[in-house]
Structure formats: structure tokens, C-alpha cells
Amino acid sequence: MENIDAVPYANRLFSPRLAYKPEIEDGSVVIERDGIPLLLETEVLPTDKLLDLLNALDGKRTLDEIKQDFPPITCEELAEFVETLDRNALIDVTDAYQFKSGVEALFELEDTLNELLHDKLYQNVFWKNCQQERVTIPKNILYGLAIEHYHFLFRQNYFDAPILARRNTGEIRELMLDFFHDEYRHDTIILKALNAIGISEEDLVDTMPLPTTLSLCNALTYWSNNDPLFFFLTLSVLEGKDLAKDTYVDICKKVGLDQAFIKPIESHANINLKHQHGNLTRLIFKNIPHVDAFNLRRLKSTLHLFVAMYDNFYTEVWQHYTDAPKLLRRVSDI
Ligand SMILES: [Fe+2]
Ligand SMILES: [Fe+2]
Description:
Elements: H1 10-14, E1 22-25, E2 28-33, E3 36-40, H2 47-56, H3 63-68, H4 75-87, E4 99-100, H5 102-119, H6 125-130, H7 139-154, H8 156-160, H9 170-183, H10 187-196, H11 201-205, H12 211-226, H13 228-238, H14 247-255, H15 259-274, H16 280-286, E5 291-292, H17 293-323
Antiparallel strand pairs: 1-2, 2-3, 4-5
This protein binds fe (ii) ion (2 copies).
């Protein structure tokens, strides 16, 4: 097995070939990669020239030759631009035969993930406040998070079910079946907590999740149906890969919320800890024989989108429930 890091990409990037077709949409250059539209901009070239430049990346001409047709751009700028495209898995690979084992690939992916979580998620207003010595989070935000968790778990079958229909190999299939079994109807556990603060199931039927909650559910459903490897990766974050205890439960206790609210939330968190859901992604990747260089770059790049969505979820919970006059966003109020 060849180590990806040991192989220089210089030759491939010497005469690069764009892997997807660029298009102009609403005056901007857009490339759709695996169903996700990516918007491209440079300060050096106007939109039409940028499109021409992307079309010139046909794998037949060297960067030096391409540069002649785009006078303002320097050699360094062009090389940097192509490297950025490559980091986002937009340059076609001639190195697809290079691969790492599932575990090796996951180590790399976890490095990227940890960096993103540390630099983005844990810097947002919700998690910053959770890390304070004296926690002063308004109760409504903690109740609001439970409401959004309920909406999320109510829709968990949207994304946990399609993955079961994939042709997974023996061990992965077993792990996912057990996981589905463990997760079945967890919305009802959170419902008990919400009942304790006077919110009934009928009330929740009449409410809408926040847009970021729903978009997270939709994205996971998309990945579960179309990109199982990436979906497996998201589980490490959603199920708390590094958690020895649950921060949310801890904060609810510190703020002094009622035991009747905390208990069901804590029993849900304990299922994760007891059944080691945080370790599930590692167990799955142990059973994946290899990840090729292109897919590894693609997975890394998609992690940016996932962490941004997860970050938006917590930020919106904080922003909405801080000032919301009512806890429930009722459909009947529209
Ligand atoms: Fe759960
Ligand atoms: Fe879980």
C-alpha cells in the first residue's frame, strides 16, 4: 500500500483536469460537486474569464501554457488557485489507486474534524457560554435545545433508516442494525423531559423546528442516501466521539433545572455512553478496507460543510431562544 503523503501531487497538478463542469448561475461561477453547488470567485479575474480559465483546465495543457491566455494572473497565483481546487476535490485524480486503510483514513479525517470543531463549533456563542466557570445560560435556551433535539430525534429515521438499506458488509450491517435498534424512538425520551415543563406531544405536533435543525436533518438524509462513508463520519460528532460525560446534562444541573426535566435527558445521554455510540464510526472504519486519495480529499472537504451546519444549529438555538417571547414556534400561529 502506498502512503498518500509520500506521493508528490506535482505531476498531477502540472497539467490539471477539472473533474466537474463549471457553469454560470446568477452571474457567478458555480461547480456542482456530488449535488453540492460550490461558488467560485477570484479577485484577479472577472466571472467570464474565470469560467474560461476553469474550462482551460482540461488535462492537456500545462499551467505555464494556460497562464499565457490569462495575462493578469501570475504563475504563483495560478498554482495556488489549482491547489485550492484540489483541496476541495475538484481536480480529477490520476492517483485514485493510492489508498489508505479505513483506520488510517479515519485518523486523518479526525485530525481535520478536531481542528474544525475546535476552531469553529466550540468558538460559537453557545459553546463559549458552556465553557464559562460560572454558567449563566438562560433556562429558555436549555429548554429550546431540548425542543430542537426532540425535532431532530423525531426525524432520526429519515437518515438512520436509508443507511440500513445499503449493501453493507457483515460487521458494518450488524453495527448499524444495533445502532438503529438502540436509537429507536429516542424522541419519546426527550418528550418526557418536555412534559415536565408543561409541553405535550400535541403541542409539539403543532410546532416547527428551527430552519437549521431541519437543514441538518435534510443534509444527513442526503448523505445517508448518497454518501454512506460521509454519513458514518458524521455519527462520530453527533454521538459524541470524545465525550466521557454529557456537557448539556452538566449545564442543566449547574443552572439548577428541575430534576423531572433533567432525568430523561440524562437517561438519553447515558444510552450513548453505555452503548459507546461515540465509538461507532471507529468500529465502522475498521471494517472499511481502503479509502482512495480522491475520496479522502472529498470527505475532508465535506467535513467543512457539516461542521458549519452543526455550528449554525447551536448558534441559532442560542439566538432564537434568547429573545423568543414563546418557547414553541406554533404552526397554528402563522
Ligand atoms: Fe439517541
Ligand atoms: Fe445515540
